[in-house]
Amino acid sequence: MKKILITGAVGQIGSELATALKKRYGKENVVASDIRMPSDFNPRNDGPFEFLDCLDPHHITRAMQMYNFDTIYHLAAILSAVGEAKPNLAWQVNMYGLYNMLEAARQYHCAVFVPSSIGAFGKSTPKDGTPQDTVQRPDTMYGVTKVAGELLCDYYHKRFGLDTRGVRFPGLISYQTEPGGGTTDYAVEIFSEALKHKKYTCYLNADTRMDMMYMPDAIKGMIDLMEADPDGLIHRNAFNLTAMNFTPAEIADEIKKHIPEFEIEYNVDPVRQAIADSWPNYLDDSAARNEWGWKPTFDMEMMTKDLLEKLSQKIEKPQKPKSR
After folding, report:
1. Which of 105, 139, 162, 296 could pair with 110 in a Cys bridge, judged by C-beta atoms 3.0 to 4.6 Å apart?
2. Which residues are catalytic?
3. How far from the centroid of its chain's Cα atoms is residue 53's Cα?
4. 231: which DSSP letter?
5. What CA–CA distance (Å, rounded) separates 184 from 179?
6. What are the residues whose beta carbons fall under 8 Å from the beta carbon of 180, sequence distance 6 or more?
């Protein structure tokens, strides 16, 4: 039976990954960790949780010695927009934190999943049908750390035989958690604003095209890759991954099919627009499809319908009265 550690488990990806892994392997076999406790955490119902700062090797060693982990999903990271505002913090967390986790995995013989991003590409990368193997010269600190992280994971696999695996995620869309400071956060915010206020002011241009993915597909992709036969993996780390592709104007039009009165306005943020402009229009994810059978479930239409239904229920659900 697997014993799994998730770092950054309170974040957008980690919170939903933890739920999926607990259903698959049992809550007692999945240890969530972060530098902050979930606001609604219940140790009786939610399984083990550890306070873990990936920048502190002592925290990591303590967790590794307490549990017999064989798999780590290392999700603790600073995202693109926050990384530009705080580049030193992005370097510290994204690089030193990764190094510490890889060292722990090497010493305790764990497989490691590390997510990369479309942010690992830059202006010199082919923008249409971006290949699996291509030029990677990003213009952001986030992108720099993602490229370096991909190379570091490759090094640990080749030098030490560590079972490292990862994907390059596009923008991820979820109704479960709040956005975490990424350039593609508009694709999360627009749905809640459409339901609450029937209006959204977008910080990107109307025609900014990027790949996106609904969170259930992202979670499925992570688990499928970690369960894949390693003999079939040629690239192993940083597989291009995508599910759908749209602009702010196109997703707004899709939302209007469900909320006809919805309106979108534009107030462009130069920083985030520059980041988005440096990224690919769409990725070629054929390597993931061929090597481990990647296939998304949701397209833009299916996601919009499902997300609006789920988010409506979440917004309308009455809040539990606070205990005195």
Report:
1. 105
2. 142
3. 19
4. G
5. 9
6. 11, 12, 79, 82
Classify domain 172-211+244-280+298-315 at the CATH superfamily level: UDP-galactose 4-epimerase, domain 1 (3.90.25.10)
pLDDT of residue 37: 82
pLDDT, one tens digit per residue, over 20-59 is 999 999 999 999 999 988 777 665 668 899 999 999 999 9
CATH node for 4-170+214-240: 3.40.50.720
* 319 pLDDT higher than 80: no
Structure tokens given for 163: 């079972």
Q: Of 120, 220, 119, 207, which Cα lies nearest the Cα of 171?
A: 119
What DSSP string runs through 26-52?
-GGGEEEEESS--TT--HHHH--EEE-
The answer to whether 4-170+214-240 and 172-211+244-280+298-315 have equal CATH topology is no
Q: Which residue's structure tokens are 């090597």?
A: 291
Q: List the one residue out of 160, 17, 62 whose CA is nearest residue 102.
A: 160
SS3 call for 60: helix
Radius of gyration over every alpha carbon of the chain, rounded to an integer in angstroms = 19
Q: Does residue 163 contact residue 156 with C-beta atoms inside 8 Å?
A: no
